[in-house]
Specification:
InterPro entries: LysM (IPR018392), LysM_dom_sf (IPR036779). Keywords: Membrane, Transmembrane, Transmembrane helix. It holds the Pfam family LysM. The protein is an alpha+beta fold. Among the domains are: 65 residues, LysM domain (Membrane-bound Lytic Murein Transglycosylase D, Chain A); 92 residues, no CATH class. It is 38% helix and 22% strand. It is built from six helices and eleven strands. The strands form three sheets. Strands 2, 6, 7, 8, 9, 10 and 11 form a seven-stranded antiparallel beta sheet that branches. A hairpin with a 2-residue loop joins strand 9 and strand 10. Helix 3 crosses helix 4. The protein is rod-shaped and about 150 Å long. The termini are far apart.
């Protein structure tokens, strides 16, 4: 009878051991699961980060490749605020429809801001179709901006004859000539201050200082026909001075 109960006792022991091992295994598995979950750091969405990075790069690129435009614009109403006088700026450009100061400066290989300065233009630098613009020259060595003037022989002869006949005796005065022939150079007008600095009738040379809004400009004049008190004057060049 005792021998018959031994197998049953062994079976119960084996079953208990198996159950215990299963429980231990489950406990280990649950412990590992909760430990891993508690130590896992949430990762950002890679696609979202890439999208934000792309948007940021695009915004930065847009900012750096599209600076504030300084190119002046022009309108369509034609005007002629720069008149052609007997002695006039050597290079005059009549503004074409759609042209800007930037394009005009590039055409003559000079900074458009210097063109604006020579014509007395300020912000927003508007120019009009049909307007005559003075094109200055710039000496890179001396850093001098100047406007060259010219007078053709036929005009000079007629002016000299009129002066000799007593019709235009004002042309015998370099200051008067400066006032009427200034042609809007550097924004100067007839009403600004003009002072004779030098007059040499033997050489046929004169210098006049024009002043406007605390800025000074020197006009060099010459006698294109005859020297002396009976010779007419014409502007040769004008440039800023301190």
């Amino acid at each position: 009878m005792e021998n018959e109960n031994k197998p049953s006792s062994n079976n119960n022991k084996n079953t208990f051991t198996l159950i215990l091992l299963v429980l231990v295994g489950l406990l280990v598995a649950l412990t590992s699961y909760f430990y891993a979950k508690s130590t896992t750091v949430s990762k950002p969405d890679a696609s979202s980060g890439l999208k934000e990075s792309s948007q940021s790069s695009a915004t930065q690129e847009k900012t750096t490749t599209q600076p504030l435009s300084t190119t002046p614009t022009n309108e369509t109403k034609p005007i002629s605020d720069v008149k052609t006088h007997p002695s006039s700026p050597a290079i005059l450009y009549q503004v074409e429809q759609g042209k800007t100061l930037f394009q005009i400066g590039a055409q003559y290989n000079i900074d458009w801001l210097l063109v604006a300065s020579a014509n007395g233009l300020n912000e927003p630098y508007k120019i009009l179709a049909g307007q005559n613009l003075i094109i200055p020259t710039y000496d890179n060595t001396s850093k001098t901006l100047k406007i060259d003037f010219k007078i053709d022989d036929e005009t000079a002869k007629k002016m000299q004859q009129d002066a000799s006949d007593g019709k235009t005796t004002q042309r015998l005065d370099p200051v008067y000539t400066s006032q009427v022939d200034i042609a809007g150079s550097f924004g100067l007008s007839k009403s600004d201050s003009y002072v004779l600095k030098l007059k040499d009738e033997q050489k046929g040379e004169a210098q006049v200082i024009a002043s406007s809004e605390s800025k000074n400009y020197q006009l060099n004049l010459y006698q294109p026909q005859s020297l002396g008190p009976t010779g007419i004057w014409a502007i040769k060049e004008i440039f800023p001075v301190k």
